[in-house]
Design brief:
Elements lengths: L2 E11 L4 E8 L12 E6 L5 E5 L10 E6 L7 H7 L6 E5 L2 E2 L8 E7 L3 H14 L3 E7 L8 H6 L4 E7 L21 E6 L2 H13 L7 E4 L18 E5 L5 E4 L5 H7 L17 E6 L2 E2 L7 H4 L4 E4 L4 E2 L3 E4 L2
Parallel strand pairs: 8-9, 8-11, 9-10, 11-12, 13-19
Antiparallel strand pairs: 1-2, 1-6, 2-5, 3-4, 3-6, 3-7, 13-14, 15-17, 15-19, 16-18
């Protein structure tokens, strides 16, 4: 995976628990263009790789902007960003990639909860540039939780922003916004935030007549409703590194990534849930038990096979991988 070197240019508090991080290129060259819905992997100095949505104005090449919420149950990523990241620090990042595309429509309704505002702000900026009408509904607990407050105060010419405070009774639990009550086939509905928020909004929208292909969402965690046809094999197997010939036994209770990292072998993990693709690795020998959600069924059945080291396992006794 190609990586870019960037410098932390600015850090700014965005609401009570959010930190915006502005990244600029090390060599003063322009960064690759990006579009709304893109995200990057950030390779942190504590050996963790974390995935963050790009936000702000798409196609910006002078800098990238991400916003990180400090999670109470942080696995080390958000804690590092909030407590140790400093201006002037150099980081490596991946090229932008997109798993949340903007589907062509005449109008858009954007529903964001908490840190889910980051990709939806980018959508709002892109729609503003395209002069496409939209309504953005931003749900937070209280005013002190609002990120990018100056941007909302500035407003948009082609879109309307609505701030809703759940501590003041303005929660989706009391129903979707009125504009959602009339399903329009020419409108796309975008959701981003915690899984429970998106599931609730999706269910309500479909009950109001919205079709599944009109509802787009981006999750920060894998869905809990996995297909009943998917059953991960838990038997121990052996993984062989093609570059060195080293082999390691992967026990029933550990992933390939965990097993290799315990042997001080670098593995480019990010989400650790099989949904981002950062750890996809070529497999040269063996049969894979795919458990990721980032690859399509055709990719999982292609002649050239890749495995998500953070979650997938082997159906065969041996897997030889490109590490």
């Amino acid at each position: 995976m190609k990586q870019l070197s960037v410098v932390v240019d600015r850090l700014s508090r965005q609401g009570k628990n959010n930190l915006a991080v502005t990244l600029v290129p090390v060599d003063q060259q322009q960064l690759p263009t990006w579009k709304a819905g893109d995200h990057i992997d950030v390779f942190l100095p504590n050996q963790l790789v974390r995935q963050y949505s790009l936000t702000g104005r798409p196609n910006e090449q002078n800098e990238y902007l991400i916003c990180v919420k400090k999670e109470q149950q942080s696995r080390g990523g958000s804690r590092y960003v909030h407590e140790q990241l400093r201006i002037g620090q150099t980081l490596n990042i991946s090229l932008p990639r997109n798993a949340f595309p903007l589907v062509t429509a005449q109008r858009y309704i954007l529903l964001a909860a908490g840190i889910g505002i980051t990709p939806l702000l980018a959508f709002a900026e892109q729609l503003e540039t395209q002069q496409t009408p939209f309504d953005l509904f931003y749900y937070v607990k209280d005013l002190e939780d609002v990120a990018f407050k100056k941007r909302w105060q500035k407003g948009f010419q082609h879109g309307r922003c609505h701030l809703l405070l759940s501590n003041h009774g303005q929660s989706v639990r009391h129903g979707l916004p009125e504009i959602c009550h009339q399903a329009n086939p020419l409108t796309q509905l975008y959701l981003c935030g915690p899984e429970a928020f998106m599931q609730h909004c999706q269910l309500q929208a479909m009950q109001l007549g919205w079709s599944a292909d009109q509802i787009q969402l981006e999750a920060f965690a894998p869905s809990q409703n996995k297909s009943s046809e998917t059953h991960a094999t838990s038997a121990e197997f052996k993984v062989i590194l093609r570059s060195t010939g080293q082999s390691f036994d992967v026990p029933e209770n550990k992933t390939i990534a965990q097993t290799l990292m315990e042997q001080n072998i670098a593995v480019p993990v990010s989400c650790e849930m099989g949904m981002c693709g950062a750890c996809l690795t070529r497999v040269y020998q063996g049969e894979i038990d795919h458990q990721d959600t980032v690859q399509t069924e055709s990719e999982k059945n292609a002649a050239e096979q890749y495995i998500a080291l953070c979650c997938s396992r082997a159906k065969s006794a041996i897997l030889e991988i490109a590490l």
